Amino acid sequence: MTGKKIAVVAIGGNSLIKDKNHVAVQDQYQAAKETCVHIADMVEQGWDVAIGHGNGPQVGFILRRSEIAAKTSGMHEVPLDSCGADTQGAIGYHLQQNLYNEFKRRGIEKSAATVVTQVLVDQDDPAFRRPTKPIGGFMDEGEARERAAREGWTVVEDAGRGWRRVVPSPLPQEIVELEAVRRLLEAGVVTITVGGGGIPVVRAKNGDLQGTAAVIDKDYASALLASSIGADLFLISTAVEQVYLNWGQPDQRPIASMTVADARRYIEEGHFAAGSMLPKIQAITWFLEKGGQEAIITDPENIALALRGETGTRIVP
């Protein structure tokens, strides 16, 4: 990637679904349209961009439709890895069409393409022994235990709301389509990849790849992508303009910049919530410890300002 200014941008769920009242496909398309305006701003500033994105709600919708169809009409259910592939295609379509239209409006000679991306995980990852990621709809205890016995699911009771299936969330090890992504970026194509953290696959003894029922954190997968292509910048677009210390408390305060050492100290002090800011900070430290030089966390509408150092939280080695 010599001679290019490469950024990996991981866009979160808020960039695709604004709130519980705007979840329809048309709403998601409009949310993607807003995000693509900010990606186009980056391109105008001279960045070549690879985009990773979340897909948790969209996978949930597919699973719910699948469950309902199976109960009411006997249709087959969709395996989790195929749900991931479906969402990569659909979300990628929304992003690349909106980027096409935005580039056309601005007179930018650029194209965008989506790579349906497999990400290799280790079958011996401890996460496979301790599944924790809830997926699918709620069940009563009888149905949950019957599905667990029949299909080998791990099921848990979820805070008095019912029973749910849980699956592993292993760390990403290798991006299978990395060479294709490299070539697209080298050709100047805005590349949408590792959607939803990538489709989790394991390698069989004969070397073949096989899909597995798991969920990979999209920020970790985007961090791996950024490290693998030697990106100059890893940017996580999320719900807040800056990272805060003492978030939600009367004395909360934004962090303009921090080092990896600062980040580790803040983690130990409990400033970042699990399932929210914590995995983002951990993914960024992972990227920086692998040789990355700069990362930013901000919300979509402030990406251009953050790139100029006017807002956002900048994290460096």
Quick description:
The chain is α/β, with parallel strands linked by helices. The chain has nine helices and 17 strands.
List keywords for this structure.
317 residues; alpha/beta; Carbamate kinase; 8-stranded mixed beta sheet; 4-stranded mixed beta sheet; 9 helices; globular
Please describe what this structure looks like:
The chain is of the alpha/beta class and 317 residues long. It has one domain (6-130, 168-316): 3-Layer(aba) Sandwich (Carbamate kinase). The chain has nine helices and 17 strands. An eight-stranded mixed β-sheet has the order 3-9-2-1-12-16-17-15, sandwiched between helices. A hairpin with a 5-residue loop joins strand 10 and strand 11 (209-211). The radius of gyration is 20 Å and the shape is globular. The two termini are 21 Å apart. The model has no long low-confidence stretch (mean pLDDT 94).
Which secondary structure elements does this structure contain, and how are they paired or packed?
Blueprint lengths: L5 E6 L13 H20 L3 E6 L2 H18 L6 H27 L5 E3 L3 E3 L12 E7 L1 H11 L2 E4 L5 E5 L6 E2 L2 H9 L3 E3 L6 E5 L5 E3 L6 H11 L4 E5 L5 E3 L7 E3 L1 E3 H9 L9 H12 L5 E4 L4 H5 L5 E4 L1
Parallel strand pairs: 1-2, 1-12, 2-9, 3-9, 4-10, 12-16, 15-17
Antiparallel strand pairs: 4-8, 5-7, 6-7, 10-11, 13-14, 16-17
Helix pairs in contact: 1-3, 2-3, 6-8, 7-8
